[in-house]
Design a protein that fits this description.
The chain is built from ten helices and five strands. With 393 residues, it is α+β, with helices and mostly antiparallel strands. A five-stranded mixed sheet has the order 1-2-3-5-4, with helices on one face.
Length: 393
């Protein structure tokens, strides 16, 4: 049995009342039994002690147990054992103190105070009775030891039950904490997914709008037909951005599926890269596409590869709109997919803001597939983004 004490629960009024009532009832039984056996010729001082001092000392012992049984259980148990030598009414409080100590399940304390109580109970009532009417000392010792043993066993059982309830309560609280952590992680993941989807939807289209709007703002020599075409492109990309944003918001409004998350919107794959490049060319970018992919990669990898290319073209359009761009994609089963997007140095760098969130999201997406990504400025002042994705995930 563990010798560690379970944390004592806070006292309740009912807990104090029933324990005190039981102690007083036991004391009344012992005191009443002795009262019926007191000889008529008992001296005046022992008689006064029994009828007056004994009850008062017992009540004082009960108050001491109420005050100090939890603060100093060993001292209280020893003091109540001494009180039993002087007062029969102290028997109930002494056994209460022993029971309170035994719930801690510390055997050294239990054995020490238990022996002290048995020894004190052996002498109870001796000043008021004649020796001829008593059991032999060993018979009294057996009776007293059995009574004390019942108290100790009951208290140990209560302590074990308390420890079990404390353990169950702690596990329940831990489970609630872990559940709260899991829920917060799911919420955080969902917020990140929403942020990524919103970025993917808006960054590409808005960069096209910004590029054409900048051209109309800074160039006054654009022919009327080209101005009209640029305005049409702005309007078309604005409509597409609104439509794609509406699709994302519609997905977010859908109730979660059986797995607990909202269904993802349709995703583009490597097969849509040529259309993406054509769109960039139509917006005025000089893009060269070199594609050598043998076979059809898994959908998750193909979607990630498409988003890498789209993010790289968006960044090039935002920060180096007049620089030529080269997109290289190569891969086969067993070798993975290698992507390189490189743009030359721009003569007219864009002042469009960039927070780097697209690159962060792209790196997270690539790492989830088991791939890796790198990016940075080239020796000639251009910019290059590289990524490798495994063929199988």
């Amino acid at each position: 049995m563990s010798t560690l004490a379970a944390a004592a629960p806070p006292r309740t009024a009912w807990g104090v009342v029933w324990r005190a009532g039981l102690a007083l009832a036991l004391s009344a039984i012992v005191w009443g039994s002795l009262a019926t056996t007191i000889p008529a010729d008992l001296a005046s001082f022992p008689r006064f002690w029994f009828w007056v001092v004994d009850p008062l000392l017992g009540i004082a012992t009960l108050i001491a147990v109420l005050v100090s049984a939890r603060r100093a259980p060993v001292v209280t148990g020893l003091a109540t054992a001494v009180a039993v030598l002087l007062s029969a009414v102290a028997v109930g409080p002494a056994l209460w103190a022993l029971g309170s100590l035994a719930t801690r399940r510390r055997w050294r304390e239990i054995v020490f105070i238990g022996i002290a109580d048995v020894a004190a109970l052996l002498f109870i009532g001796l000043p008021y009775q004649s020796g001829d009417e008593m059991l032999p000392w060993w018979g009294r010792a057996i009776v007293m030891a059995l009574g004390v043993g019942v108290v100790i066993a009951t208290a140990i059982g209560m302590g074990q039950r308390r420890a079990l309830l404390d353990g169950l309560r702690e596990r329940a609280e831990q489970a609630e904490r872990e559940q709260a952590i899991r829920e917060e992680a799911v919420k955080s993941e969902e917020r990140n997914r929403i942020a990524h989807d919103m970025h993917d939807v808006l960054a590409h289209r808005i960069s096209l709008v910004a590029m054409h709007a900048s051209a109309l703002t800074f160039r006054e020599d654009i022919p009327r037909a080209e101005q009209h075409a640029a305005l049409q492109t702005i309007a078309e990309n604005a409509r597409l951005a609104l439509g794609e944003l509406r699709d994302v918001l519609g997905v977010l409004r859908e109730p979660p599926d059986a797995a607990g998350s909202a269904p993802a919107p349709p995703q583009q794959t490597l097969a849509d890269v040529p259309a993406l490049v054509d769109e960039a060319r139509a917006a005025g970018m000089a893009v060269d596409l070199i594609e050598a992919v043998d076979g059809t990669p898994p959908s998750a990898v193909s979607q990630a590869a498409y988003r890498v290319v789209r993010e790289a073209l968006t960044n090039a359009r935002k920060h180096a709109r007049d620089a030529p761009v080269t997109v290289s994609i190569a891969g086969e089963d067993g070798e993975g997919i290698a992507i390189r997007v490189r743009n030359a140095a721009s003569e007219h760098p864009s002042d469009l803001p960039g927070a780097g969130l697209g690159l962060i999201a792209m790196r997270e997406r690539i790492e989830r597939t088991g791939g890796r990504m790198g990016h940075g400025t080239t020796s000639d002042g251009g910019y290059e983004l590289t990524a490798w994705l495994p063929w199988a995930t």
